[in-house]
Specification:
single chain; mainly alpha
């Protein structure tokens, strides 16, 4: 594991940088803009799923670390997509007119 991190040190720095930057950006967003941003996050998560699938397809079957990272990326991105759609659907249903009996 240490050798993998040393070989991909720039990628590790980039990952830490993007996590910190993402946290800072999202924490500054007004509440009104959360629904449009959630739709954008769902689109980005879809791109992550496609990228992780490509990673797994081009990976050597003996490289367990890349297989685990790609699988974790697919699972976490799909959780984000499904949760985002569920929350967006719930928020949009609040604007539907209620049926009268």
């Amino acid at each position: 594991m240490i050798a993998f991190i040393q070989e991909n040190l720039i990628m590790a720095y980039l990952l830490v940088f993007t996590v910190v930057l993402g946290f800072e950006l999202i924490s500054k967003v007004p509440t009104v803009l959360h629904t449009p941003l959630m739709s954008g996050a769902n689109a980005i998560s879809g791109i992550v799923v496609i990228g992780a699938i490509f990673l797994l397809r081009t990976n050597d079957s003996g490289d367990i670390i890349k297989m685990l990272i790609g699988s974790a990326a697919i699972i976490l991105a799909m959780i984000n997509i499904v949760g985002g759609f569920a929350v967006t659907n719930r928020m949009l249903s609040m604007f539907n007119k209620k049926k009268k009996d």
